[in-house]
Amino acid sequence: MAVPGALGLPSGLPQVVAHRGASEDAAEHTLAAYRHAIASGADALECDVRLTRDGVLVCVHDRRVDRTSDGRGVVSALELADLAELDFSSWHPSRVEAPDLEHGPDDVDRRVLTLERLLEMVADCGRRVELAIETKHPTRYAGLVELTLVELLARFGLDRPDADGRAPARVMSFASSSLRRLRGLAPAVPTVYLMQRVPLRLRDGVPPSPADAVGPSLRALRAFPAYVERSHAHGVPVHVWTVDEPEDVDFVVGLGVDVVITNRPAAVRRQLLALPAHG
Asked: Is 19 a catalytic residue?
């Protein structure tokens, strides 16, 4: 899985991926967070997806809605109409202006964001913005998540490479079973195996068979920095999360990672542009 150069940055620098949008500046997984990330120049948008009771993929990280809304309950046990009644934004001390509402009720940032709405926004944003979509498991719907995701990607033409051969979307998961299902359903969509730590069986740099790339945590790379070089020796790109502090950006860039996933895409881009070797 080749990772193209970052938008507007010199070659050799990593892609900047907005983690749940520009989630330091606006509530995670809201349209405001993703608009701000695009305006900040992020190369890609990261989102987590879960399936509602009535079969809709929504951008919610947690199994429950308690932390990021004014409601309670399990996402998979609620219908989209139930989630649409909840406030997913007011908990966050947003630093960006609220959007105007001329485009209709879907633009009210307190509402839950569906993956379909996010894909529509990306399609209309006026420049190339890639997607890094994380499937959350375990879930009561298991393979239905991947099936629904692939159908939606296909509808937007995101299940195949662009004319220039670059993949517009990739799927990430901590569950190798999810990546295996995805590979069977959409073999052209790149996959990223996420890791909290690098287990002994993977320390040679070879990822699990369904994965095209690896996504270790920042903590994992702090504990085992040689993992980046070992992965690259096997032609495996490294996507690291979540990197927000300047010293951590310097650390992972020094290791040569391919993708930096951050809550602060604007600040990370500024730091990369200011690096002496690339100034």
From this structure: yes
